[in-house]
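hiii so my PI (J.) wants the whole complex modelled not just the main chain, which honestly fair. so below is everything: two entries, each one labled with what it is. i double checked the lines twice but i was tired so who knows lol
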Amino acid sequence: MSKRVLDVTAYTTFDYLQGSAAGIDWENDGIMVLNVDSDEADGVVRLSTELDPMDQERTEQHADHVELFPDQARTLASKLREAADRVDMEVDDD
Amino acid sequence: MAHKKEDIKGELYGDEVREKLEEFAEKGWDSIPEDEREEWFTRFKFWGVFHQRSGQESYFMMRLTNCGGVLGPDQLRAIGQVAREYATGPIENPEFGNGYIDFTTRQSIQLHWINLEDVPEIWEKLEGVGVSSRSSGGDTMRNISGCPVAGKADEIIESRPILDEIQETIRGDDDLCNMPRKFNISVSGCRQGCAQDSINDIGLEPAWKLADGEKRKGFNVRVGGGLGGREPRRARPLDLFVPPEKAVETVREFVEYYHELGNRENRSNNRGRFFVDEHGTEKIRDDLDERLEFEFEPAGKDFRDEYTYNAGKPREEGPHDHVGVYEQRDGLNYVGLSVPVGRLTAKEAIALADLATEYGSGEVRLTRRQNPIIMDVPDEDIVPLLSEPLLEEHTPEPSPFVRGGQACTGTEFCSLALTETKVRLTRTLRWLRNNVDVPDDVSQIKIHYSGCTADCGQAMTADIGLQGMRARKDGEMVEALDVGIGGGIGEDPSFIEWVHQRVPADEVPGLLKQIIEAYVAHREGEQTFREWVEEMGVESIIDLTEPVETDYDDPCLHDAKQSWYPFADDESPAPTRPDGSPISADD
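here's the output for the full assembly
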């Protein structure tokens, strides 16, 4: 058991999401924090996630970070928007 | 590329900000162009003027400053009078009403609901009695912390002259106003460790060396300590002993070193503790050795194994806080009050100042545990002082729960926090006092509550640490807390380990009751809470406890962050004029 790696404040992008960590033959479900911030000095957008420390039974306490150049971040944003639209349409059809 | 805050500070910062702030105050809140608010609010912080959170536009928090927690005669009275007149908002707090002061964990005082227009008048009143708000916020040197009873209680080395010189010549130096980030300095001269050097960017601790058969007293130097949820650090020893007469220049050199070399690009890892990670203590010591002219000596023998302040040691080893009546070295006494969560109404603050004058010298000092101390009380005045109504309310002999409680500002005013803190902890402490029995020898169970992982309430170093979070309960988002145990300072600081996370706020008191009852049932002899956790192990305590609803009534369970004030049902009137009338968009 250890501290949270990511800061969780009112400025955190999402302080409560359902998530999981998975291996070949295992999966840990839990609550996840997701944050997006920009690092102007390195010229990247950083996307970070962390499963709640007490939900990390199979892994060492950790957070994951992905660094995206601005174009990659925009591509991700547009893919997320497209996927969200598909889900919305599905929900509407239901 | 420098962070944009560096551009803002580079353009104008430090003492020059005051004139601009006074200009805006004269013209009124809406004279600050909307697109310039962020940059002006960044600068105002240097002068201790902080814009409150969204929904409370036009209202400011003012943080006052001092050195080592000392308030001279009349200073607290003036602060209380200012709180009564100016620190009143458009809504009452359900526990504290309107017009109150908050004692902070850095021996300071905060006032809320201040209108910008009133700031010059407030400064005039406070500065008239020697109280300033300069350098209490922003990227600057914060309150220099020290033993609050320095100069009055036994000390290994006299620290007051050193504290005062650091305050005047280093913190007061406008050339050093613009640090890469906030910066904390502490100097201890006592055996208790109550300045908590281990959580400061630079801390001086008493030590001694043998030279020519004689003991030489001085300080060992530690650097790079700090809390904050993300990677808290204990300050690390530089293996450096400095004699008292070299203490101030050593602190100055480290401040200048960080001022020059600290990272001004990435604010997520440029606090002093990360600076020390990056450079390493050996290099820092070598660099300081090169920059300073006197000869460096390795660390002396310290007194850390005697530290008792929030150390989780049995009370016979020494005081773990300043609550109670203690003899001063001049034969007078100091009387430490217990103010739950550090909040006093303005009326109580004025009454406290009056009592300090009537029974003592008028001096009031502030501890790092959000509590005030009345100084210089003769023996014969102790009994009458203790029977005053204010000391019955904020008694020097409180329950261990009330005694150990401290909390940050929380969502009431802070834009960073995820949950309300002060009212919730006040009610929780009251509920514990009424519902949990502990043996008479248990005098300390320190419960610290921070509204988020920034940890301004110092949850990391509590017996039981609480941090604001959110959870889902019965299909709704609710305010929740991460609950951890086993932190403390002393010789070997330890940070809490989580026992349950995202506990809905209304289930926390029931969980705390179980944790404390498990402690009472399973501890050996007179083990303190911290000793018990260390021996029992966190895993066993997780198995013994679980969150549970009780008859505790939470003040704002349902995600009050979304409202403009945690206890409000109606719309915010902000922004308003100083008379409280709303400034409409049409004005």
